[in-house]
Design goal:
CATH architecture: 3-Layer(aba) Sandwich
Structural class: alpha/beta
Shape: globular
CATH class: Alpha Beta
Helix content: 40-55%
Mean pLDDT: 97
Number of helices: 11
CATH topology: UDP-N-acetylmuramoyl-L-alanine:D-glutamate ligase
Number of domains: 1
Length: 289
């Protein structure tokens, strides 16, 4: 049976924050993002995680990206990574304090370079059974090349139809024409939560299917998927389940786009604008139920 994510559903999922909370009350987030051509993805996915209620986030990215964005994102801590000559994350990297992070997001703007793929697969294999994972964009493309026998039981993956066609080796037209079917197959195959992006984004655990009711064409711009990754990561850090974080995340993301469009029109909303409207989306959910 298909269910819909509406404001009542979203209200029921909003994480409660105790008055005496501190940043240590929430799971630490590690975001692996960015390469030479996509430093913006690292910025968007990191800042949106904090805007969604995360308490602490570290961005692991090539050192030159830190130099580009740290002055406009002082709230984030940074882990400099070695890069290849072409500006991708090198396979010659290790994150020594990996176990400290309860949430790990990977994929936004990292590219599909072989060295980055190797680094990503090795990192995912190093995670323990309690760490929650969000895999987006090139992270999914890298999995399509080599999943290394990984278990994705603790993961939310957020493909658009073309990325899912690569992962499942199914034609793009088949994905588009049978979105619910292939979203369900993905979750059943990989034992993960699947967020199949697009108009009426689908969220499934392989059994239940939810369809999002927010969002518009303003989201059809580069970088908006990075914001979604950050929102889901921020919600996971507040101890929501994988499934609930995905459901609430897509609703907030789409609602931010709806509210932003009222001020800016659907033509003019940028991915960076969405981050500024996350607060308005939370406020709407909390006051309109």
């Amino acid at each position: 049976m298909v269910k819909y994510i509406d404001n009542k559903t979203a209200y029921s999922l909003i994480p409660q924050r105790k008055e005496d909370s501190n940043k240590g009350s929430f799971l630490k987030i590690l975001n692996i993002a960015g390469c030479a051509n996509y430093s913006g993805a690292a910025y968007l996915s990191s800042l949106s995680a904090l805007k969604s209620g995360g308490g602490f986030i570290s961005l692991a990215c090539p050192d030159f990206i830190i130099q580009r964005i740290s002055s406009v994102m002082p709230e984030v801590t940074y882990i400099p990574l070695k890069s290849t000559d072409k500006g991708f994350i090198s396979s010659d990297n290790a994150i020594t304090n990996l176990s400290e992070y309860g949430v790990v997001s990977v994929g936004c703007g990292i590219g599909t370079d072989f060295q980055t793929e190797t680094f990503m697969i090795n990192l995912l294999k190093s995670l323990n059974n309690e760490q929650k994972i969000v895999i987006d964009a090139d992270g999914i493309n890298n999995l399509a090349h080599n999943n290394g026998g990984l278990s994705l039981k603790n993961a939310v993956i957020t493909p658009h139809p073309k990325e899912l066609s690569r992962l499942l080796n199914v034609s793009l037209n088949d994905i588009i024409e049978n979105r619910e079917k292939y979203a369900r197959i993905t979750s059943q195959t990989y034992e993960c939560i699947t967020v199949l992006k697009g108009k009426n984004t689908i969220v499934t655990n392989g059994d239940e299917i939810y369809i999002n009711t927010t969002g518009n064409s303003a989201l059809a711009k580069a970088g908006t998927g990075d914001v979604l990754t950050g929102i889901i990561s921020g919600l996971l850090s507040q101890h929501l389940s994988l499934f609930d974080s995905a459901k609430l995340g897509v609703y907030i993301h789409g609602l931010a786009g709806d509210i932003a469009s009222e001020d800016l029109t659907q033509y003019c909303v940028l991915a960076s604008d969405l981050i500024e409207y996350i607060a308005a989306a939370f406020n709407f959910i909390l006051t309109e139920d």
